[in-house]
Amino acid sequence: MPTASQAEKTRTLRHSGVVRVTHWLTFFAFVALAVTGGLIVISHPRFYWGEVGNVNTKPLFVIPIPSSRGTVPNGYSYEMPDENGWSRYLHFEAAWVAVLTGLVYGIYGLWSGHFRRDLIPERRDWTWRAYRDRIQKYLRRTIPDDGPDRAEERSYNVLQRTAYIVVIFGLFPLMIWTGLAMSPAFTAAFPWTVELLGGRQSARTIHFFVTWLLLLFLIVHVAMVAMAGFWSRVRGMITGYRRDSEEAP
Amino acid sequence: MKPESTSPITRRKLIRGGVAAVAGIGGLAAADRLAKRYGLIPPDGKGIYGPGETLTYACQRLLTTRTPAREFSRSMISKNPFANAVARPNDAFKKLQADGFRDWRLMVDGTVAHPMSLSLTDLKALGVHSQITEVACEEGWSYIAEWIGTPLSGVLREAGVLPQTRYIVYNSFEEGAWESIDMQDAGDPHTLLTMGMNDGELPVPFGGPLRLRLPRQLGYKSLKYINHITATDDIRKFGKGKGGVDPEYGYSWYAGM
Prior knowledge:
Chain A is built from ten helices and four strands. Chain A is mainly α. Chain A has one domain: Up-down Bundle (Fumarate Reductase Cytochrome B subunit). Chain B is built from seven helices and ten strands. Chain B has a five-stranded mixed sheet with strand order 2-1-10-5-6.
């Protein structure tokens, strides 16, 4: 039976248990939120700016799809089935999963040093040059003959760190904020949460745009994982370990 | 491949995990008992969406107690409010409408000391209030209007609601349309039995002659053509026990979110 120190030579702990569990909970919650959010939008695929907006007011933009309501004047005679009931139930349940998971992850990230160690860009990278160099590296797709950057096997580069920081501390909180700003009871208690955004319809429109930013992140994230070796990375996020032998090309 | 003899699970981890699991289950059980005791579980708080629905309702009840709905300035009243689709009025309704709704009655019964039947004139005599609030539909659209009427709380006070009452059930003239709210929303000064809109009578497409406006919840709880209110201590006795026709159709009972 190998001792612990022997095992360390062949397997490296890449992701802690909290990171792995919260990663997948967030993933499932996000998929549920995105799908049900899309279904809810179908009932009124028009967007506005300001406090109010309805079929009698001028929209900011309209998504040219059939609606699940006959009252929406969009030129289609076809009406989609109404899925709002269960979609709204699941949307808010998944939102709770995302929020509670985010709380656990946030507390853990501060307490364990995960944010400081793994996500905040390293001091030497706090320059435009660091970003530019990294982007150029990606564009050239230079994988040197001696395999991928060994340092990147253990830690994230400045672009990855920035992307994660923006998603975790920017987009997800903005999603929760704009979501709550559409709640008539919540805004009764905290009116500034909707007033700061410019009104209820503005909150809805921002909620919609941030969804696309998060979907863009998901696509790039999965593409990067695929380029780095999809199953080895996915296994790493499930078991936490990656065998060192897999790191060589 | 190496055999999995290097399991990362140690005895310490097992003990720690066990303690966390026991604490978690104990915490959930305690939360469930507290929620039941303080009425924080909505009538549709069962099934797969029950946990999310209960969390939303309980948190909003704890956070938004006694905070009035947002009100707006007169200049923000929507020029072209949207009435939404309504069922075609039947003959009985048209007959009442032809008489200017003189014979429209609001029945009040259930767990009240004095069941009664009120005309629109009786309702106005209880005191007329106005508010400029937003109607927000679950579909996403909204508009602002001035709503004029008498607060539901005044009617309930007049009828003498008994202390065991937990919900107010309200029915529409429209066959099969009914909803319910808890006592906190029923007692909210903004919960208005609305008879006027924007300085005129409440138009029929907007719910005239009588609509229950509930600005702290989404539009579908603001039922149109109200003609019957029942106070109750047991919501399970009504319909399928989910507290309204919308929950029976698959929409959440609590629409503050």
